[in-house]
Amino acid sequence: MRAPQSRTYSPPSITAELGRGDAALARNHQNRNVPFCDQIDGVSIDDLVEQFGSPLFVFSERTVIETARRAKKAFSKVYPNTTFGWSYKTNYLKAICNIFHKEGWIAEVVSEFEYQKAEQAGIPGKDIIYNGPCKSRESLEHALRQGSLVQIDNWDELRVIEEIVPTLRRPVDVGIRIWMDTGLTPAWSKFGVSLASGEAARAVLRVIANPHLKLHTLHSHIGTYVLEPKAYAVAAERLVILRELISRKTGHLVPCINLGGGFPSGSLLHEMPEKTKVPPIEEYAEAIAGVLNQLPRAQRPQLRLETGRHLIDDAGYLIASVVAVKGAERDKAQPNSGKRSRGGYVVDAGVNLLYTSTWFRVNVLPTKPSDPLHNSASKLYGCLCMNIDIIRQAVELPPLEVDDKLVLHPVGAYNLTQSMQFIGLRPAVVLIGVDGSVNVIRRREKLADVENGEQVPERLQLAAI
Ligand SMILES: Cc1ncc(COP(=O)(O)O)c(C=O)c1O
Question: What is the pTM of this model?
Answer without folding.
Answer: 0.91
